[in-house]
Design goal:
Helix 3 runs antiparallel to helix 4. The chain has a domain at 39-104. The chain is elongated. By secondary structure, it is mostly helical. Helices cover 65% and strands 0% of the residues. The N and C termini lie far apart (57 Å). The protein has helices at residues 7-21, 39-48, 52-71, 77-102. Pfam families: TrbC (PF04956).
Length: 110
């Protein structure tokens, strides 16, 4: 005799019941009052990444990170990874700034 109520059948039954009970959920629109609280600060950061201040800060960051790696002497592995992180962030900011100065539309963030 075959069991009808197995774990697998219980999972399928529970999934089917949840599917029947679910209601349609609509995504919030970007207009009106549906924006998330962190969208405005992120938009501000994205707009400031292509200005002259970002260009200057990224050049300073590249020089400082390069000097630390060249003349840093005995730095710990953690410090070296932080310096690499600063170097990568500075290069990304520099690339964004250079791209926006070469082309009028700036870098596109997805």
């Amino acid at each position: 005799m075959k069991k009808i109520f197995t774990k697998r059948n219980a999972v399928f039954l529970a999934s089917f019941l949840m599917l029947l009970r679910s209601k349609t959920v609509y995504a919030a629109s970007s207009g009106g009052g549906g924006s998330l609280p962190w969208e405005t600060p992120l938009q501000t950061v994205m707009q400031s990444m292509d200005g002259p201040v970002a260009y200057a800060v990224s050049i300073i960051g590249i020089v400082a990170a390069g000097a630390t790696l060249i003349w840093g002497g005995e730095v710990s592995e953690f410090t070296r990874r932080i310096v690499y992180l600063v170097l990568i962030i500075a290069l990304v900011a520099l690339a964004t700034s250079v791209y926006s100065s070469l082309f009028s539309n700036g870098a596109v963030f997805f």
